[in-house]
Amino acid sequence: MLANAEAADDVRTILVAHQTESIHQGYSHLVLETFRSAVFSIQNAK
Fold first, then answer.
1. How many domains does one find in the chain?
2. CA 10 to chain centre
3. For residue 10, what pLDDT is reported?
4. How many helices (H) and strands (E) would you count in the chain?
């Protein structure tokens, strides 16, 4: 939920008290729309 709300990775890790990056990545799941928004942002940054 936090990742899809575009909370920063380091903030999410602290908020949910994950001890390592690998643990955090195992629990971070982005919905397709989040990926689409990221790609759209990159394309429009030119």
1. 1
2. 10
3. 73
4. 3, 0
